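Tutorial handout. Part one gives the primary structure; part two gives the three-dimensional structure as tokens.
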Amino acid sequence: MATKVSSKQAENEVKKMAKNVSQDDVENTVRNKSKIDKIFQHVKSLAKYKDEVVLVFSMLKDYVKGDYKQVPWRTIAVLVGSLAYVVAPLDLIPDVIPIIGWSDDCLALAGALSFAKMDLEEYKVWNGRKTLRRIKMIEG
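Part two.
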């Protein structure tokens, strides 16, 4: 029989992980982007989050570099916690279980992206302004 995971269970798992996120975890997540990229390429149920995850990585990279610090630590921790949850081989529903194995990962990621929605929108605006400044500098 298939095990069902509620969005509340997935959210609670991510919150537990987020409580333990450190600055080193953020930096490691940015460095290990290729591992997460591979998962998103091979797991169809996660593919719909690809664009948002690209934005998350851009924000995390700017955060680590010190270019963008306007995002609350809790948002950083929840996003890193959810990405760690996706990568973790052991979670509420083991990923090796066909069809439903990634459902808890999808719920955790969706919850984290929903939680961070406003902060990601603010980052998108900031990033767009940064890009415009670069273009203006190049054009002279």
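Part three, for discussion. Residues 63 and 69 are 6 Å apart (CA to CA). The two ends are 65 Å apart (CA to CA).
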